[in-house]
Amino acid sequence: MKIDGSVALVTGANRGLGLAYARELVKRGAAKVYGAARDPAAVTEPGVTPVALDITDPERVAQVAEQCADVSLLVNNAGVMKASNFIGAPNLDAARLEMETNYFGTLSMCRAFAPVLAANGGGAIVNMLSVGSFYTNPFTASYGASKAAAWSLTNGVRLELHHQSTLVVAVHAGFVDTEMAALVAGPKDSPESVAQQAFDAVEAGQVEVLADERTRTVKAQLSRDQELIYPPVQEFWDSAVAGTG
Ligand SMILES: NC(=O)c1ccc[n+]([C@@H]2O[C@H](COP(=O)([O-])OP(=O)(O)OC[C@H]3O[C@@H](n4cnc5c(N)ncnc54)[C@H](OP(=O)(O)O)[C@@H]3O)[C@@H](O)[C@H]2O)c1
């Protein structure tokens, strides 16, 4: 689909990747860009219309789908990462929040906007996933589980919305230079690069974006994950636990 002239809604548009998505949409000539955020006053980007939205509030999600009935491109970007693991975490709070936001929030947005997209000719959904959808990093383990669930839902939503010609794009990235990855050293993708790749895919009708070399390598190694992906991860985790990492 063409971005030029489209009407888009981006969740978590107040900062980080969401802001980059909103800005790129304006740049590519979207007729209207709704910038959804828990605090709409934080959406100040020129050309972006603020909308109050917490994606974990199903009533509000339904209201927004009704109010923004002209949307033809939905960008499910909002997400949380609590740097929590499975066994060592003190309780299930982080795992529940991540699943509630990254999986159920995204699912609820897809469900609410599916009829809106159908009424507007099919359109597209972009789901912001992660390299963590593909394998478990023990430093962000429960986050990875929520992104794996969101990957699965992305594939399922694509199958279910094929009949109404909705393009469903999965965007997987490694570390991106935003607040979420602020504590991570080493190479990071720029939010602008991820947004550009995502909308290039929308315009080309492609269903998957692997935004960086690390993400492409991990996806290519999936069929031999226990041999190629997990041994170095295990070694790194063991040395971190032993205090030598
Ligand atoms: N940064 C990375 O390394 C990286 C890598 C791969 C994928 N991702 C994914 O990219 C997406 C954007 O993350 P980011 O890097 O831009 O992180 P970020 O700077 O922490 O931004 C997260 C955004 O999500 C919003 N959000 C969180 N919970 C929400 C909720 N319940 N309802 C509505 N909005 C909510 C936040 O709003 P508030 O300002 O109100 O908190 C904020 O706008 C996420 O899905 C993340 O998992 C990030």
Topology:
Blueprint lengths: L6 E5 L4 H12 L4 E6 L10 E5 L5 H10 L5 E4 L16 H27 L4 E5 L12 H21 L5 E6 L18 H14 L3 E3 L2 H8 L4 H4 L1 H12 L4
Parallel strand pairs: 1-2, 1-4, 2-3, 4-5, 5-6, 6-7
Helix pairs in contact: 1-5, 2-3, 3-4
The structure holds NADP nicotinamide-adenine-dinucleotide phosphate.
Sheet with the most strands: spatial strand order:
3-2-1-4-5-6-7
The radius of gyration over CA amounts to 18 Å
**Helix/strand/pairing category:** alpha/beta
Low-confidence stretches: none
Helix fraction by DSSP (H/I, runs of at least 4): 40-55%
* Separation, N- and C-terminal Cα atoms: 46 Å
Mean pLDDT: 97
Anisotropy-based shape: globular
Number of helices: 8
Strand content: 5-15%
Order of helices and strands: EHEEHEHEHEHEHHH
Strand runs, count: 7
Largest sheet: 7 strands, parallel
Quaternary state of this entry equals: single chain
Cofactors, ions and other ligands in the entry: NADP nicotinamide-adenine-dinucleotide phosphate
Report on the architecture of this protein:
The chain has 245 residues and is an alpha/beta fold. The protein has eight helices and seven strands. The chain has a seven-stranded parallel beta sheet with strand order 3-2-1-4-5-6-7, sandwiched between helices. β4, α3 (93-119) and β5 (124-128) form a beta-alpha-beta unit. α2 packs parallel to α3 and α3 (93-119) packs parallel to α4. The chain is globular, with a radius of gyration of 18 Å. The mean pLDDT is 97. It binds NADP nicotinamide-adenine-dinucleotide phosphate. NADP nicotinamide-adenine-dinucleotide phosphate is lined by residues 11-12, 14-18, 37-39, 53-56, 77-81, 101, 105, 128, 130, 173, 175-176, 178-181. NADP nicotinamide-adenine-dinucleotide phosphate binds next to α1 and α3.
